[in-house]
Design brief:
Blueprint: H1 3-21, E1 34-36, E2 40-43, H2 46-57, H3 62-76, E3 86-92, E4 98-103, H4 140-151, H5 158-171, E5 173-174, H6 177-185, H7 187-191, H8 194-200, E6 212-213, H9 216-228, H10 232-235, H11 237-248, H12 255-260, E7 264-266, E8 269-273, E9 276-280, H13 287-298, H14 303-306, H15 311-331, H16 342-346, H17 348-354, E10 397-403, E11 409-415, E12 473-477, E13 480-485, H18 492-507, H19 511-516, E14 520-521, E15 529-531, H20 538-546, E16 551-553, E17 573-576, E18 583-586, E19 595-598
Parallel strand pairs: 15-16
Antiparallel strand pairs: 1-18, 2-10, 2-19, 3-4, 3-11, 4-7, 5-6, 8-9, 9-12, 10-11, 12-13, 13-17, 14-15, 17-18
Helix pairs in contact: 2-3, 2-5, 3-5, 5-9, 13-15, 13-17, 13-18, 15-20
Bound molecules: 6-diazenyl-5-OXO-L-norleucine.
Residues 392, 394-397, 415, 417, 436, 439, 468-470, 488-490, 493 line the site of 6-diazenyl-5-OXO-L-norleucine.
Length: 599
């Protein structure tokens, strides 16, 4: 071979081989999505994904399967999977009909705007996050029952969708690495409530990974629900156990509150992005509005040509995030209690107006951001801005995605709010309660546990639903489902969902590339970009700093065994290949027990 050709080949090899061996995104080898031609379930727990598939194999549709997966997560992923909390389900039927099921918790009738303040008007630390007073009236069972009744296939019964969860609880399953780690990590919280100590810590005798983990009380609760039907939770023995426990421990939830709880159907929130239709969550989540606002702000920009994780791109996204989170704090709350100017906020013309203050060269300081915003949307009392601490990073909510062979798609995010919720296991039931009341504004200008500043629109009132960030979303292309996604992570949920969607649409990433890519987050206050490990090179960081950004990096230590824990979100995602219709699932490796499986 002539010398010059050998040299050319050598140069080519030097350039190409490392590129093939290393992911351009993470420095790791690439992994492929799970593939199937029919159904797929992606969730934080393999056993819960299997529960969904079991129902699909029996002839159930994606809604039936989502209920089975959700109930099973209560058993296998109790840090977030729940029947003592609430959430949202976005459903798109194969024929194009789309709807949202809102099963968000509601404030008990005894709740008051200042219930978390002391006599001097100061927020009492822990009161909205730990113990009985922190719980809202749970909505999960009502939401699942409504979804089954209105959108299920009609081929599987309530008792059948409950069965995999009952079986997992009563017969047990081998303790997983993720659950063992979660229980150990939350020992202090769980030990502070005797019933949680007994049920979840086995009074100090925690099983080892691989040992059988049986939850007898929870199995009984599911058996009652199977036998008596879903209203049992709100009117039967389970309701009695909740109300009695509350009364014994100074909690507010009464039998009447439980009896009055209803899940709701709401119209899905719709937007578009570069020719795709976005179906997402309306208020009482802020997630859908913020997501559509951000997409509308991005659309005039050629994101693809900025390049993945270039300084210019991270700058643009941080500015877009900052503006959406500013509006979140000002305008959003439960639409059944306050007027939320949804149409105005998601109007692309409004979004473009928000970006008139954008400079490609300089960060816009969060303080005073409202100055110069377009007229027309005026809140009566904007929240006061204080720098807050960065958001908590772990996954204390859970998201899962389901598609069936017919093309019905379901995107569900539900939560206990904090890790293992408020720490309280309702005596005799085996399930934990949420601490969703912390998602309300305890006091204007005082951050909540996610560092969020909230406004008067989200003040506490009896029966009201606290403002959420959960963003279960379905992207539609050419009238067919294209991406089913969402995430846990408090306020980071909205930005994680944005990143996954834009990674696919703008950068052409596969499902796994989009989920694996390191994330970043800006939430207006604090005025900083929170970065997952390995997001950018140091020189990219310097470029961002030179534009005026403050970057916060989760600290990594040499050979850090907890490196994964310094990341956030759990974007259990399914992408449907528009050409072949194949389902391409991406579980999120940040969540150790997660699995995307199909057939
Ligand atoms: O609804 C919300 O926005 C919060 N309760 C979600 C909490 C959450 O994602 C915690 N996970 N890190």
């Amino acid at each position: 071979m002539p010398k010059f050709r050998r040299a050319g080949l050598f140069r080519l090899a030097v350039l190409v081989i490392p590129a093939l061996l290393m992911s351009p995104l993470t420095g790791r080898a690439q992994r492929l999505p799970t593939e199937s031609s029919g159904a797929m379930v992606a969730s934080a727990s393999r056993l819960a994904s299997e529960a969904g598939l079991e129902i699909l194999r029996r002839g159930g549709n994606a809604v039936d399967a989502s209920i089975a997966t959700g109930l099973a997560l209560t058993v296998t992923y109790p840090r977030a999977g729940n029947i003592g909390g609430g959430g949202f389900m976005v459903i798109r039927h194969a024929d194009g009909r789309a709807i949202v099921i809102d099963f968000r918790e509601r404030a008990p009738s005894g709740a008051t705007p200042d219930m978390y303040l002391d006599a001097s008007g100061t927020v009492v630390p822990g009161r909205s996050t730990h113990g009985y007073l922190a719980a809202g009236v749970p909505g999960t069972i009502a939401g699942f029952a409504l979804a089954l009744e209105k959108h299920g296939s009609g081929k599987v019964s309530w008792a059948e969708v409950v069965e995999p969860a009952r079986r997992l609880a009563a017969e047990g399953f081998p303790m997983t690495q993720g659950l063992a780690r979660d229980l150990r990590g939350s020992e202090r919280l769980l030990a502070s409530f005797p019933e949680s100590r007994r049920v979840f810590l086995r009074n100090g005798a925690l099983p080892k990974v691989g040992e059988r983990w049986v939850q007898a009380d929870l199995g009984q609760t599911f058996a009652r629900l199977q036998k008596e039907g879903p209203r049992e939770f709100y009117e039967g023995e389970t309701a009695r156990l909740i109300a009695e426990d509350m009364a014994r421990h100074g909690g507010l939830i009464t039998s009447a509150d439980l009896r009055a709880y209803r899940a709701l159907e709401r119209p899905v929130l719709r937007g578009t992005y570069r020719g795709h239709e976005i179906l997402t969550m309306p208020p009482p989540s802020s997630g859908g509005i913020a997501l559509l606002q951000m997409l509308a702000m991005l659309e005039p920009h050629d994101v693809a040509s900025l390049g993945h994780n270039s300084a210019a791109k991270i700058h643009l996204f941080a500015e877009v995030m900052r503006r959406a989170f500013r509006d979140r704090a000002e305008f959003l709350g439960d639409p059944d209690f306050v007027t939320v100017p949804t149409a105005g906020l998601i109007d692309p013309a409004y979004a473009r107006g928000l970006m008139t203050s954008f400079s490609p060269e300089r960060a816009t300081p969060s303080e005073g951001l409202s100055a110069g915003r377009p007229a027309g949307l005026v809140a009566t009392s904007p929240p006061t801005g204080h720098p807050a601490s960065p958001p908590a990073g772990s996954a204390e909510t859970t998201h899962y995605s389901v598609i069936d062979a017919a093309g019905n798609a379901v995107s569900t995010t539900y939560t206990l709010n904090g890790l293992f919720g408020n720490g309280v296991t309702v005596t005799g039931t085996g399930f934990l309660l949420n601490n969703e009341m912390d998602d309300f504004t305890s006091k204007v200008g005082v951050k909540n546990m996610f560092g969020l500043l909230q406004g008067p629109a989200n003040a506490i009132a009896p029966g009201k639903r606290p403002l959420s960030s959960m963003t279960p979303t379905i992207v539609v292309k050419d009238n067919k489902p294209f991406v089913i996604t969402g995430s846990p992570g408090g306020p980071t949920i909205i930005n994680t969902t944005l990143l996954i969607i834009t990674h696919v649409i703008d950068h052409g990433m596969s499902a796994t590339q989009a989920v694996d890519a390191p994330r970043f987050h800006h939430q207006w206050m604090p005025d900083s970009i929170d970065c997952e490990p390995f997001l950018t090179s140091r020189d990219t960081q310097r470029l961002l700093e030179s534009k005026g950004h403050r970057l916060t990096n989760r600290k990594l230590y040499p050979n850090d065994p907890e490196a994964a824990a310094r990341s956030w979100g759990d974007g259990e995602t399914i992408l449907i290949d528009p050409q072949t219709g194949r389902r391409l699932g991406a579980n999120d490796l940040r969540s150790p027990d997660s699995a995307a499986i199909g057939y």
